[in-house]
Amino acid sequence: MLKYLDLALLQAFTAVVDSGSFTRAAVYLCRTQSAVSMQLRKLEDLTGHPLLQRDKRKIRLTEEGEVLLDYARRMIRLNEEALVAMNQPHAVGHVRLGMPDDYAHQFLPGVLTHFAHAYPRVQLEVIGALSGALLDRVEAGDLDVAIITRQPERRRGKVLRTERLVWAGSRQHLAHQETPLPLALFPEGCVFREHALAALDAASIPWRIAYTSQSFAGGMIAVSGGLALTVVAQSMVPAQWRVLGDEQELPRLPEIEIALHRAPGTLAPAVALLEAQLVEAVQMDKPMASRDAQRQEVV
User: Fold this and answer.
1) DSSP letters of 236-251?
2) What are the two backbone dihedrals, phi and then psi, of residue 170, each rounded to the nearest 5 degrees?
3) Residue 231, beta-bridge partner list
4) In total, how many domains does the chain have?
5) Are 105 and 74 within 8 A, CB to CB?
6) CA dist 70 to 17, 65, 73, 95, 284, Å?
7) What are phi and psi of 262, to 5 degrees?
8) Which residues contact residue 188 at a Cβ distance below 8 angstroms, ignoring those fewer than 6 apart?
9) 246 half-sphere exposure, CB direction, 13 A CA radius
10) Is residue 1 in a domain?
């Protein structure tokens, strides 16, 4: 007999995981704690696996719970998107989105597919450039919305996530052993570039710019070919690269903030719809370090 996962049960499950407590989840869901516990037991019976490990102090995901959590979030998100699409099926307009190339590579593919299917009459224009240049265009009203690296001297916008910058290089090459250190970086004005060069100078490590490109794909060619190292956000390290650090005697890099910026004035409905999907995509996508941590305590 075919089984069906009840969205209400999945919502209770994700609420417990996100809040770290049955009590807090009950408050969020406007239910009693016993009702939430009963929903979790029903979900475990339905899936045939324990999903949480409980004791007096901690709640942890089991391996099966970790697998289900990703599906639960996606099913809840799809349900919400379907309702929005049904309420605004005829959304129209022209949306201008700005995003640096590396962020677009990470966050945009799924968003663009979902948005295009839900709102086929909305024309979406995506502009890639360095974060500082995109911020200029947003403030001038030339872009409707942008997801960028928060600028050190222009600390505005809504912070969506914080990322650790890391050194990365090809798994098959040893560019990190060269002197001076060869680097593949975005052009001047890039926050990643500024942090990388400042850290190397502070550690008295000689460097040279071996490759400069506005495109993340261009940098990937240089790094994957063993011509240089680069600096990327931790969650955006491609599978064919490796993270380098203390063992290679490279200096630790700071964290950066990924922020959303809006054009001045009231958002058009089509812009608001895209913004909601962008915010969810950026906030839900987890850095590599947190994926392993998810097996541990959920607080």
Assistant:
1) G--TTEEEE-GGGTPP
2) -65, 145
3) 167
4) 3
5) no
6) 12, 9, 5, 30, 10
7) -115, 150
8) none
9) 0
10) no
What is the token pair recorded at 99?
């995003």
Whole-model pTM: value is 0.66
- The C-alpha atoms of residue 13 and residue 25 are separated, in whole angstroms, by 9
Please write the tens of the pLDDT for every residue from 244-272.
988 999 999 999 999 999 988 877 888 88
Residue 132 sits in a domain of what CATH number?
A: 3.40.190.10
Instruction: Render pLDDT for 86-106 as a digit per residue (tens, 0 to 9).
Output: 766 567 889 999 999 999 989
Q: Are residues 58 and 117 in the same domain?
A: no
> How far, in Å, CA of 256 to CA of 152, rounded?
9
Take residue 181 and report the two structure tokens written for it. 């250190």
User: What backbone phi and psi angles, to 5 degrees, belong to 57?
Assistant: -115, -25
72: burial class by Cβ within 10 Å (0-12, 13-18, 19+)? buried
